[in-house]
Amino acid sequence: MKITENFTIRNGHPAAVAPLIEFKNVYKSYGSNKVLNGISFTIDKGENLIILGRSGSGKSVAVKCLVGLTKVDKGEIIIKGKDITKLSEDELNRIRMKIGFLFQNGALYDSMTVRENLIFTLQHNKKNLTDQEMESAVIEALQNVGLEEAIDQLPAELSGGMRKRIGLARALIIKPEIIIYDEPTGGLDPITAREIIDLIRNIKIKYNTASIIITHDLICAKYTSDRIIVLKDGIIKAEGSYNDIENNTDNWVKSFFKK
Fold it and tell me: Which domain holds residue 242?
């Protein structure tokens, strides 16, 4: 790591001296099942990090640890200079209000319209907003995903791709500093998946968010990633750009790219 004045050269690129997120030697087990085995990595502001790995590799557990839903056994997880493993629940909730989620299935409330889904999220994260301010925030979030016309529709009236985009609007409405994407293109046809990929790229440019993207989709990984880490049995097996991972000589890593 080379430091030059106000910047650090990290992962081959200039970066702010302190990363926005840092995992330091994190361990997590469930009984005899060792899920995370001392993983360490950083994420900078404005960086998209892909976490690649097969089922059971520790991807989802790492994210749960990041937001404090699962307590680590050992290690530190630092967000904006604070070790969240040592925070109270109230302090954790303040950190969580800076994090937006795009769940794999969209996770919308079926009985609420799109407007009501977004307002519900806003009310739980941004206090004391007027009705006009909330309506403006809803419209802006929907414009960001190209679905302003769906504002009064119920989730059941939307296609899978539209529900995914509304889920992304809900993540954006709180103006997060960090976004976690869980299989953002999962279950989508190639055209709709490409639309979601373009949205992820545009959101990074517009909001300068730090993002963690959990995916099995190599096309999504290729076009949204600044950096990729590959997990196997709770350890980082490989790390680097998409080209670095694609050209890795380890047989297990190479297996991701077999047709």
Answer: 44-57+89-257
